[in-house]
């Protein structure tokens, strides 16, 4: 401002001096000119007057333009000042509106908002002072805070209990950088999510949202996730790791991250199904829990023990190529199981078959280890159970053969490559054909595969239901055709597996087949085994009575090889007992077999059943059986099983 005044003074002085010099020069030169051009005094006076008027006119014009320029400059300056004042007024009004809006927002936020100033001692943050708080702050925290209050007034031990929060607040207030942060405030037992920023050095705006409920939900979700993860990786009955956990553990141990040898033990309880059937599933569950405890006691604490399903346990046992450790441990387990387990006031003997595969000598992947341990376990079963077996390469070859055969069997069923053969049943008194048994055969381009080979494979692979239905359908079709052609004498006996008989849809399947083939149940005899009855005799009695009421005949196949209870046998709606071939062979030289056969014949007669002997091959066997009252004979002595075209020729004669 001072510089501007100095400039104005100098400018005015310059103009005045110029005017002064121009005036003097005008007077001097104008007078000289007048003296030159004028002679008379009156002319001189007149010229002087004109000269004065001219000077006044010129100076008046100059003053006009000077004042006009001055006034215009002043007006511009005034307008400029007026515009600045207007803008300042508008800015002040805008700031006031912003302050009011900010305050309104500040006071009416859904979250707590505070304006604070940090308090330091020896350069360290020890507290903070509230400069202003909004309406939500009090309802959220319960603090009646106003300007000048400190957090230590509400929470005396805040600095000691929350040192981290003071450091975070100080960091934001010092650096003036925004930050988000979550913190648990112990004094009021709440979680807060903080949005922090600094409006000025040492000051802090804190916007706090109560996220306590959100944290609770997060905790519930986390706990639920943990629970589901636990359930997904553990067996609910025994709390042992399940198959999923086992596979993950094996992937880790065989990935090369853990460089050591270990053995995989595949343990399967022998005859566990019979325990369940005899004592119930609750008892079976108690047995599995007891076995789990025994395994946990027997093996070292860090041993990985899993239950992979049913009565199967898999154990990963660390060892350094030394099989003696495994021999000793499993021998101890088998010795323990040789003693009865006392469960629910019952002393139960249970045994186990154990297969062992070694890593990495037997296999280097999780899948191969399980396959080879499983093959070794089946070998232990074949050795008579209650024992263990280390893996041998020949086991895999056997499993591969069985798997391949199962695949080929399925294809053979789809392509109708299986055939029914028929073996006549002969009345001993008349020596006339009185029924046939349908026997399944599997001819291939190289050899005919024995039922003794493919039937067990069908049972293991689950194909037995399809196979059994195929035999029922084909047998009923042929029986219906024979009846239509007047060739049928007696019935067609068809074997029904235990798995078929106990299937929930068996009765519906029977009804459907009879309807589709238009075969009368009177033409069919269903052969069942003793083993299919003993699992649940009361249920089987009820089921067989329903089947009997439909018109089917029922016989028990291979009688004497199972464990039928006579108390149940008397209540079964059985028409025929078939004596197993094992009692017929060498019957003339085996007194014990003779006694058994005589007893079975007498039992059948006493229960009003007919009785048939299987596998009769000699006249001596036939004569013994005839003398002891046998009703029917089935065996090579009369006829071998024959294909459909041959049995048709036999029936036609």
Pick out its properties.
elongated; eight-stranded mixed beta barrel; 24 helices; 4 domains; single chain; alpha/beta; Alpha-Beta Plaits; five-stranded antiparallel sheet; 653 residues; 21 strands; Beta-Lactamase
Provide a descriptive summary of the structure in words.
This protein is of the alpha/beta class. The protein folds into four domains: 14-104; 112-213, PAS domain (Beta-Lactamase), CATH 3.30.450; 230-391, Reverse transcriptase/Diguanylate cyclase domain (Alpha-Beta Plaits, 2-Layer Sandwich); 418-652, Alpha-Beta Barrel (TIM Barrel). Helices cover 54% and strands 20% of the residues. The strands form four sheets. The chain has an eight-stranded mixed β-barrel, surrounded by four helices. The chain has a five-stranded antiparallel beta sheet with strand order 2-1-5-4-3. Strands 7-8-6-11-12 form a five-stranded mixed beta sheet. A hairpin with a 5-residue loop joins β13 (419-427) and β14. The longest helix has 68 residues, at 41-108. The chain is elongated.
């Amino acid at each position: 401002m001072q510089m501007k005044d100095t400039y104005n003074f100098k400018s005015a002085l310059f103009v005045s001096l110029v005017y002064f010099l121009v005036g003097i020069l005008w007077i001097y030169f104008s007078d000289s000119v007048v003296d030159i051009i004028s002679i008379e005094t009156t002319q001189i006076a007149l010229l002087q007057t004109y000269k004065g008027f001219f000077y006044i006119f010129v100076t008046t014009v100059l003053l006009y333009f000077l004042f006009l320029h001055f006034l215009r400059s002043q007006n511009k300056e005034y307008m400029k000042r007026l515009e600045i004042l207007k803008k300042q007024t508008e800015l002040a009004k805008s700031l006031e509106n912003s302050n009011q809006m900010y305050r309104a927002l500040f006071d009416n936020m859904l979250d707590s908002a505070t304006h604070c100033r940090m308090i330091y001692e020896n350069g360290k943050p020890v507290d903070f002072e509230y400069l202003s708080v909004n309406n939500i702050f009090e309802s959220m925290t319960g603090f009646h805070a106003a300007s000048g209050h400190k957090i230590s007034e509400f929470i005396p031990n805040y600095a000691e209990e929350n040192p981290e929060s003071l450091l975070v607040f100080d960091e934001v207030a010092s650096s003036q950088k925004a930050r988000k942060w979550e913190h648990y405030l112990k004094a009021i037992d709440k979680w807060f999510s903080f949005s922090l920023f600094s409006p000025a050095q040492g000051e802090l705006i804190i916007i706090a949202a109560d996220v306590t409920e959100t944290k609770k939900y997060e905790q519930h979700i986390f706990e639920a996730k943990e629970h589901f993860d636990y359930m997904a990786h553990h067996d609910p009955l025994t709390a042992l790791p399940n198959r999923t956990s086992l596979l993950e553990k094996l992937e880790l141990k065989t990935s090369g991250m853990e460089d050591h040898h270990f053995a995989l033990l595949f343990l399967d309880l022998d005859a566990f199904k019979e325990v369940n059937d005899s004592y119930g599933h609750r008892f079976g569950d108690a047995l599995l829990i007891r076995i789990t405890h025994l395994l946990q006691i027997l093996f070292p604490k860090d041993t990985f023990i899993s239950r992979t399903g049913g009565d199967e346990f898999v154990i990963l046992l660390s060892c350094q190529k030394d099989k003696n450790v495994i021999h000793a441990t499993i021998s101890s387990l088998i010795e323990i199981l040789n003693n009865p387990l006392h469960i629910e006031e019952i002393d139960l003997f249970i045994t186990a078959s154990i297969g062992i595969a070694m890593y990495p000598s037997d296999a280097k992947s999780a899948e191969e280890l399980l396959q080879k341990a499983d093959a070794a376990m089946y070998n232990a079963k074949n050795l008579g159970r209650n024992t263990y077996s280390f893996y041998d390469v020949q086991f895999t070859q056997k499993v591969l053969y069985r798997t391949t055969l199962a695949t080929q069997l399925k294809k053979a069923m789809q392509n109708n490559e299986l055939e029914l053969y028929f073996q006549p049943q002969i009345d001993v008194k008349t020596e006339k054909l009185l029924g046939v048994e349908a026997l399944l055969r599997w001819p291939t381009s190289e050899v005919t595969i024995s039922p003794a080979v493919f039937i067990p494979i069908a049972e293991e692979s689950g194909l037995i239901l399809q196979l059994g239905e195929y035999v029922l359908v084909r047998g009923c079709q042929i029986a219906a055709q024979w009846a239509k052609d007047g060739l049928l004498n007696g019935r067609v006996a068809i074997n029904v597996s235990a798995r078929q008989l106990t299937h929930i849809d068996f009765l519906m399947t029977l009804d459907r087949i009879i309807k589709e083939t238009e075969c009368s149940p009177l033409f069919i005899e269903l052969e069942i085994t003793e083993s299919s009855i003993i699992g649940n005799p009361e249920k089987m009695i009820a089921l067989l009575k329903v089947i009997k009421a439909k018109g089917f005949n029922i016989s028990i196949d291979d009688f004497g090889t199972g464990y039928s209870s006579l108390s149940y046998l008397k209540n079964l709606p059985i028409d025929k007992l078939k004596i197993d071939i094992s009692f017929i062979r060498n019957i003339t030289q085996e007194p014990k077999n003779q006694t058994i056969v005589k007893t079975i014949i007498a039992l059948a007669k006493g229960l009003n059943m007919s009785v048939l002997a299987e596998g009769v091959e000699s006249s001596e066997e036939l004569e013994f059986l005839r003398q002891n009252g046998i009703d029917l004979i089935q065996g090579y002595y009369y006829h071998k099983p024959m294909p459909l075209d041959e049995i048709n020729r036999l029936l036609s004669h």
